[in-house]
């Protein structure tokens, strides 16, 4: 089966009409894991009738420690992602950290993701926009939701009009995050779909000294609140065995528990809203 990258316009329009899912392991640990998780996500999405995008990173360039696992790198990582798309038909989203990565990544990925720490990097945003792909920008932990208008403006000036904005918590003292759900309607007012990253929002940045910690037990609570607040998409880092994950294990959601959580959230989404 040959699977071409999704037409950016089609994927973006779908994201405006029904709740969608971004899911996968934080980093590409192995080819086999990528294929296993992508297949599971595709099966769940098929049963639930939702659009899913497989997410994993070929390089985690912002780890706590120099010894932290980063991933297989650009060339190998893109080959694994391309194979996951070929095998499952799922669109692909992955992070870019440098402007020169945008073009080669766009040959494989359907969505380019801008990490939270880099959401104000003008050259990176411009390069991502120039690919014509959907660009998912994760709001920095240090940034007010209303200040994302400047990010949207930079992308628009570079021709990027297919944009997702992702809430992933805000810095709350040291080694902690808190979610201000006012950010959902505030960022939606900028005219683009808003995603809630339920797993990074329970992260404890640098909380283990040489690595980040997390409180995955609060993922369902925050995800329910986000759906009630009106998010368009959900971002969940999932892993078959989070306690053995090489990256972001403490805040990753167990793959076997993905479908029950999504069923609950979709039921909540169907409840009529007063606004």
TrEMBL record:
GO terms for molecular function: 3-deoxy-8-phosphooctulonate synthase activity. The keyword Cytoplasm applies. The keyword Cytoplasm applies. It is found in: Cytoplasm. Its main location: cytoplasm. Pathway: Bacterial outer membrane biogenesis; lipopolysaccharide biosynthesis; Carbohydrate biosynthesis; 3-deoxy-D-manno-octulosonate biosynthesis; 3-deoxy-D-manno-octulosonate from D-ribulose 5-phosphate: step 2/3. Its EC number is 2.5.1.55. Residues 18-259 form the DAHP synthetase I/KDSA domain. One of its GO terms (cellular component) is cytoplasm. Belongs to the KdsA family. This is 2-dehydro-3-deoxyphosphooctonate aldolase. InterPro entries: Aldolase_TIM, DAHP1/KDSA, KDO8P_synthase. One of its GO terms (biological process) is keto-3-deoxy-D-manno-octulosonic acid biosynthetic process. HAMAP family: KDO8P_synth. It catalyses: D-arabinose 5-phosphate + phosphoenolpyruvate + H2O = 3-deoxy-alpha-D-manno-2-octulosonate-8-phosphate + phosphate.
């Amino acid at each position: 089966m040959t699977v071409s990258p999704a037409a950016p316009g089609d994927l973006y329009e779908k994201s405006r009409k029904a709740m969608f899912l971004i899911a996968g392991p934080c980093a590409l640990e192995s080819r086999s894991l990528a294929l296993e998780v992508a297949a599971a996500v595709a099966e769940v999405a098929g049963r639930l009738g939702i659009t899913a995008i497989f997410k994993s990173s070929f390089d985690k360039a912002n780890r706590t420690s120099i010894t932290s696992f980063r991933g297989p790198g650009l060339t190998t990582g893109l080959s694994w992602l391309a194979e996951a798309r070929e095998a499952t038909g799922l669109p692909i989203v992955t992070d870019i950290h440098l402007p020169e990565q945008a073009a080669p990544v766009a040959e494989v990925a359907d969505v380019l993701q801008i990490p939270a720490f880099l959401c104000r990097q003008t050259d990176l945003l411009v390069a991502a926009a120039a690919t014509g792909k959907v660009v998912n920008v994760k709001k920095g932990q240090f940034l007010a939701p209303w200040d994302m208008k400047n990010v949207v403006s930079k992308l628009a000036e570079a021709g990027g009009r297919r944009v997702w904005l992702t809430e992933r918590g805000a810095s709350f003292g040291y080694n902690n995050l808190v979610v201000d759900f006012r950010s959902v309607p505030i960022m939606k007012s900028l005219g683009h779909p808003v995603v809630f990253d339920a797993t990074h929002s329970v992260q404890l940045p640098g909380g283990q000294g040489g690595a980040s910690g997390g409180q995955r037990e609060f993922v369902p609570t925050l995800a329910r609140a986000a759906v009630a607040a009106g998010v368009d998409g959900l971002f969940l880092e999932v892993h078959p065995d989070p306690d053995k994950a090489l990256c972001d294990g403490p805040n990753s959601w167990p793959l076997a528990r993905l479908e029950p959580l999504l069923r609950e959230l979709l039921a909540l989404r169907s409840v009529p809203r007063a606004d």
